[in-house]
Amino acid sequence: MGCILSAALQAPFLAAWSQQGSMFNTWKPMWVVLLEDGIEFYKRKSDNSPKGMIPLKGSTINSPCQDFGKRMFVFKLTAAKQQDHFFQASYLEERDAWVRDIKKAIQCIDGGQRFARKSTRKSIRLPETINLSALYLSMKDPEKGIKELKLEKDKKVFNHCFTGTAVIDWLVSSNSIRNRKEGLMLASSLLNEGYLQPAGDTSKAAAEGLSDTPFLDLSDAYYYFPDSGFFCEGNSSDDDVVLKEEFRGMIVKQGCLLKQGHRRKNWKVRKFVLREDPAYLHYYDPAGGEDPLGAIHLRGCVVTAVEDMPDSKKYDVENNLFEIITASEVHYYLQAASSAERTEWIKAIQSVARTGK
């Protein structure tokens, strides 16, 4: 299955739901693979055989799908036999990427062509001498890089961010580009590759394709580095100071994990963000929402790998479990997609727990 996955569009824990109960009639996290002529479902990434398959020939796709009022980032795939299949992505860009590639695959089938997935991001040609990773490190240099500021707009305070104009100014002054037009192209590439993140409605709208360019050379368009301590404060100066303090730490690691509920003991996909100084692990609904569902204070915690859970059904878990026990003796059980990913999370949490306050 490895070679198939490497050649296809794939995503861990894409939520899926099918009508008429042919595969599953409730929302469940599935490993979904887009092939040349169909979509395959796997309960786990490591499974050798798919749980089901939807042929794309004669299928149609609808996005955004409003059939589920409170669920965001849903799209609907209607098969040739008029059976509806619904998918929920973790965020807008992921949903749009899936929709674009599925549409392309269907068009290739209709035209008798071979589907070859290309990048779903806008194609931006850069000089071969440009190394985005090296450029990103230079931009983050504490002395010579872009200065992170506290900026205010629309009664909100954006911490650890900078303006689009500041980015272009820095690119010009560092001789990375010849003019501001070329700077827009380079900054757009940094944005598309995730080295920059939009903050605020103006820059987010442009990144989503509602402007002539993904990146804006404007003083009221805000951006931030993905591993910085960026956080946004609302319009009230009386907000809980302790809560704000949780978000001041630099982001060390983030990604999706399965988390076991404390009451029902069921497993749900959650997006986790690990911060240090102060040491917190926040978890969010991957379907959207800026506010976390919960926070785990990691100072003085113990984190270990777990091989078995007696109160879980056998098919619910793999050998990628780990447990966090906080200083107040609250137990959290999490499940990674692979053994290597579990090890990465354990090491990162242990490091933060030792050094963060």
TrEMBL record:
InterPro entries: DEP_dom, PH-like_dom_sf, PH_domain, Pleckstrin, PLEK_DEP, WH-like_DNA-bd_sf, WH_DNA-bd_sf
Any Pfam family hit: DEP
Signal peptide limits: 1-18
Residue span(s) of domain PH: 7-107, 250-354
Keywords, alphabetical: Acetylation, Phosphoprotein, Repeat, Signal
Positions of the DEP domain: 142-227
Entry's Gene Ontology BP terms: intracellular signal transduction; platelet degranulation; positive regulation of actin filament depolymerization; positive regulation of cellular component biogenesis; thrombin-activated receptor signaling pathway
PANTHER family attached to this UniProt entry: PLECKSTRIN
Function of the protein: Major protein kinase C substrate of platelets.
Protein name: Pleckstrin
Species this chain originates from: Gallus gallus (Chicken)
